[in-house]
Design a protein that fits this description.
The complex is a heterodimer. By secondary structure, chain A is mostly helical. Chain A has 9 helices and 2 strands; from the N terminus they run E-E-H-H-H-H-H-H-H-H-H. A two-stranded antiparallel sheet of chain A has the order 1-2. Chain A is globular. By secondary structure, chain B is mainly alpha-helical. Chain B has 3 domains: about 55 residues; about 50 residues, no CATH class; about 30 residues, no CATH class. Classes of the chains: A mainly alpha, B mainly alpha. Chains A and B meet through helix 2, helix 3, helix 4, helix 6 and helix 7 of A and helix 1, helix 3 and helix 4 of B.
Chain lengths: ~200, ~180
């Protein structure tokens, strides 16, 4: 039975990706089917771009790394093994690229108001009163700012868990660490973000 | 764990369980224990609510639109790599080596294809020079002639000079112009 992953997106219907189909596509691509690569790009480019935008806080750099990640998938197709989930492999490549990028001092842009606006968490305002919408935006702004200040691996672990819906085991594979370490990373990140929320925010 | 006075939320491991509860990572038995405690403990409920507020905000991150030119740029990059290193089997090991950039690999390929022959040529030249030092034959050259060459600061190039300037200077010397 095929495993399915729900990629969270509040503004649209949940994007359900059949992970076994990913494996089939990757194996087909490995064997020379270029259309399979197109399909993998269509399925994963947007989630990967979202993840890298969260990691880097810089849309242009995130886009460049999506390009580089898929280029590496293409380049390394011969080494792909079906015992590894495609998404775990892809996010591991992307995470390594992002962590390398973040080690370069010049790659950390100052967070300007325009950047905040660009990357502020989109909220589904439909059905909300103006007070509630404003409250949720303040909450999102607070979380966004704190997320930016987290250690890189904490931010990666939290984003992979909460936004991308990965299990701790998958995150451990992505970050090349243990499940126990992932538990601590996710929890510390949550605590750090929750600590800054005013009491009345929740 | 139903008495709020016995709240164990100061225990980091228990707080971590609240995180794991949200992520669906607790086994059934532990999840039941944690939920039982939550029913009685307002402090832990507030903590869980704070975590949920964080998650709710992050869940709201919409999928961004993929720039329309991105797929084309990837295709162009693939084509460039194919030109630089067609069917390069070393590409297979690239996925987990994030420190190596795409341009770095490309230049690496260029090096192995164009630089290696040049390196071999340079090594051959070095071996030749090591065992075949060019000799300078000073037989028949007078001290005065050597002085002329020294004056020109070209003694190290005497073989060359002999065919050019020195020949002229020596000729001039022979004519007594110096």
């Amino acid at each position: 039975m095929a495993r399915r992953v729900c990629i969270r997106d509040m503004e649209a219907e949940p994007l359900v990706i059949d992970v076994d189909e990913d494996v089939r596509l990757m194996l087909a691509f490995r064997d020379g089917d270029r259309a399979a690569f197109d399909e993998l790009f269509r399925r994963w480019a947007a989630p990967l771009l979202r993840y890298l935008q969260r990691m880097l806080r810089d849309a242009a750099s995130a886009e460049e790394l999506v390009q580089e990640a898929f280029l590496r998938v293409h380049r390394s197709r011969a080494s792909y093994s079906a015992d590894a989930r495609f998404s775990t492999w892809l996010y591991r490549i992307a995470t390594n690229l992002a962590l390398n990028e973040l080690r370069r001092p010049r790659s950390r842009p100052a967070i300007h108001e325009s950047t905040e606006a660009e990357h502020a968490t989109p909220l589904r305002d439909a059905g909300l009163g103006p007070d509630e919408a404003a409250h949720l935006r303040r909450l999102a702004h607070s979380v966004d700012r704190r997320l930016e200040g987290l250690p890189d691996k904490q931010r990666a672990a939290l984003c992979l868990s909460v936004i991308e819906g990965q299990s701790y085991a998958e995150i451990a594979a992505t970050l090349d660490t243990t499940v126990q370490a992932v538990k601590a990373l996710v929890h510390r990140a949550r605590c750090a973000l929750a600590a800054d929320l005013p009491e009345r925010e929740y | 764990m139903s008495n709020p006075d016995l709240c164990v939320s100061e225990d980091t491991a228990f707080e971590q369980d609240l995180s794991m509860l949200l992520d669906g990572e607790l086994d059934a038995s532990r999840e039941r224990d944690v939920r039982n405690h939550l029913e009685a403990c307002a402090h832990c409920r507030r903590q869980l609510a704070a975590f949920e507020a964080v998650d709710q905000t992050l869940h709201g991150t919409a999928l961004p639109p993929v720039p329309p030119g991105l797929r084309t740029r990837i295709e162009h990059a693939i084509e460039r790599e194919s030109v630089l290193a067609p069917n390069d089997p070393r590409d297979a090991a690239a996925a987990d080596t994030p420190q190596r950039t795409r341009s770095g690999r490309a230049w690496g390929s260029v090096f192995w294809r164009a630089g290696a022959p040049l390196l071999a040529l340079a090594a051959s030249l070095a071996i030749y020079l090591a065992f075949h030092q060019p000799s300078i034959d000073l037989d028949g050259v007078s001290e005065e002639e050597i002085a002329v060459a020294l004056e020109l600061d070209k003694i190290r190039d005497l073989d060359v000079i002999a065919n050019l300037e020195l020949a002229e200077r020596l000729a001039a010397l022979g004519e007594g112009s110096i």
